Amino acid sequence: MTHTTGPVERMLKRAAAHERRFNALFEEYFDTLDRTLDAPSFSRYAPECVQLLRELSMRGGKRMRVVLLHEAAALVSAEPAEGLDAAALSIELLHTHGLVHDDLIDDSPTRRGGPSTYYAYRERFPRLPQAALGLTVLAGDLALGLSLRVLLEARLPVALRQAMAEAQTRAAADTFVGQIVDLERDFTGAVPGEDVLHSVADFKSARYSVLAPMRLGLLAAGGQPEAFDHELRRYARLVGICGQMCDDYLDLYGDAEAMGKPTGTDLRDGRHSYTVSALLSVTGGAERAVVESALGDPACTPEVIDAVREIGERHGVADTARAEMRRRAEEASLVAAGWRSRWREEAVTFFEHLPLWSVERNR
């Protein structure tokens, strides 16, 4: 009997192929950068900075932004587009920039199973905390500069290079605004409403993780993303919201062993995530006091986190979160399904199944 693969299996197979190819491309990029970075010959810090960026960039990661880039190009053409490699490098270098600065903002010691860039510099300069902080900021800035330079130096028509650089610059600016409002959300003290949570998810992640790769992929393949901007924005926003809901849900209800990190991080860090905000909205009295005692307490014990988890389960927070994630994923799938009259079937199917697969795999 012949086994016929389903759409999700085909989607995962294509995603894995994109990931393997890109990892080889990224290694080659850093090999070249090691030899060609324009820095004074006496400098030891500059090559050390590049090495730290390389280690962080190559240490894991699903490369889903790269996958989205290639599948967006496949919406309009089955042929490989010349600008995809430069766009993929730009996307992942921008992501590296974000990881470096995120870990500094959050004071995170680890990332992807190794030391964060900030903590690597802290170990390098144990008696010079300002040097460690400054070099971390500059490492992130270097990754951002490289992400734009790789587009500007690509051997592509000038108009295409400019359009791609503009798309990435806009994505970077939106992400910075997202980081600002993310901090603002947590510092105001009030429980944020749904509109605030959605806006943070949109600006902080959806616009550079989903929308920008799709725009770049369409541009590289000769498409016109501006003609379909409303649909692309709606799809990206829904996927971004759904993804952030998943992350926030797993932070409290996920399997710590499977994730490779402890649960309850958002509570300990005082973050008003989707899940934490839901908990604060449905609890009162002694139960709310338990949640508030954990919120912002770095020394909060696993037992208290377990108690908060049980409170949420009693109030249906987990069930409501799962239902909301699936609803958003279904809405995104319907948006993608509407592209069939215009774009190639195989790639449309990919974008149609991606949101629901993302929810199911994270449960």
TrEMBL record:
The keyword Iron does not apply. CDD domains: Trans_IPPS_HT (cd00685). It comes from the Bacteria. Its EC number is 2.5.1.-. GO terms for molecular function: transferase activity. InterPro entries: Isoprenoid_synthase_dom_sf, Polyprenyl_synt, Polyprenyl_synt_CS. The keyword Cytoplasm does not apply. SUPFAM superfamilies: Terpenoid synthases (SSF48576). Its cofactor is Mg(2+). It is an enzyme of class 2 (transferase). It holds the Pfam family polyprenyl_synt. Keywords: Isoprene biosynthesis, Magnesium, Metal-binding, Transferase. PANTHER family: FARNESYL DIPHOSPHATE SYNTHASE. Belongs to the FPP/GGPP synthase family. This is Polyprenyl synthetase family protein. It comes from Streptomyces flavovirens.
